[in-house]
# Entry
Amino acid sequence: MIKCGTINRVEVADFDCKTATDSDLSVLKSLVYENKIAVLKNQHLTPGEYVEFSKRLGTPEAYYQPMYHHPEEKNIFVSSNVSKDGKRMGVPHTGKFWHADYAFMKKPFAFTLIYPQVIPAQSRGTYFIDMGEVYESLPEDIKTKLEGTTCKHSVRKYFKIRPTDVYRPISEILREIERETPEVTHASVFTHPVTDEKILYISEGFSQQMFDRDGNPMADEFLEHLLILSGQKDNAFSSPFVRMHQFEKGDLLFWDNRSLVHCALHATVAEPTESFRITLHDQYDFCQGVDELNQSVADPVLRNVGT
Ligand SMILES: [Fe+2]
# Structure
């Protein structure tokens, strides 16, 4: 095991995704729940094999916008600025802000898998913050103030305009965003269903507004203060909570999306980069009460908008 500050990163050197037994997978998932991140080294998987492996770890869910899908495997979300045979796949420069995957949806993911395909020469990594550790560090008066509070999350701040949106009225696009991804509400603090750890569930990218235990809006400054305390407002990434995990060709990163927020590292100069992401649900509710808070929120409409 390699300790990276407060987030442990378990490096697994001899894990064969194609022949792993159920017992191997169970041990691997336990490692991720406990240590937040595991890196499987020296992997050589086709897109189909990658998806098959992911299905043994949990239930994949394809991203709600088809423009991110791998052309043959819709469960693979492609972040890429690489052209092959004159064709582009996926979307460039994704996730360059602090977030937990799908926090703006009713049922966020338990796990995220990232399998880099084209590794940039300089900026090869992802920043992480363990929001369980952040919660633990909070002063008692803030923990008390957080009891029973909720937070609304939305995709609006970092929503990417799609090629099919060009020349469309912005009002129409905004209505569509509202229809497909209405704001959702999650507990500001929840207990991890496996580790029993308390997680402060807010992110700079998606968290919009906090509410007290009686449903009254809380001052914006409180959310801002929590984000500052967590290190998510530190543009220099120098907070003691921020850890950068570098990766190399053949690495397959597997992390606990309940506990960690992450931020992609992109180079300031253009470098070819491509990674394949698969996101998974496990057998547990994301957190207790996750359905009750969003009973009136419609599921996203899966359709190719703008065509
Ligand atoms: Fe992400």
